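Blinded run. Sample ID left blank on purpose so nobody reads anything into the name before looking at the predicted structure. Input follows.
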Amino acid sequence: MEEELLCQENHVHDEICEQVNLDMPDENELYDVAELFKIFGDSTRIRILSALAQAEMCVCDIGAVLNMTKSAVSHQLRILRQAKLVKNRRCGKEIYYSLDDDHVQSIINLALEHIKE
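Blinded prediction complete.
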């Protein structure tokens, strides 16, 4: 039977706990982070973000690259836009999508780096 990884004594390190409490983000920020990771938790959205990390694209382009319908792409882009992960710009009758900022690219890169370890 595997030994449980628990403290042998019941002793709280007050100084560490106080410092952690001072440095912790507030509950609302942590909730928002959890919601952001829910968005990243969908492989279709990650595929779209990965494609947009390569180039600015319209819905038709994204659908062609990822073998998805325009409707399915549009639905996911709406979610990504609401989460401020992608932005769009109009050029005539077309709308082009790109990552909202460098932070989105950094999150994807860090996640890929982590799983390749």
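Unblinding after everyone has recorded impressions. The first helix runs from residue 14 to 23.
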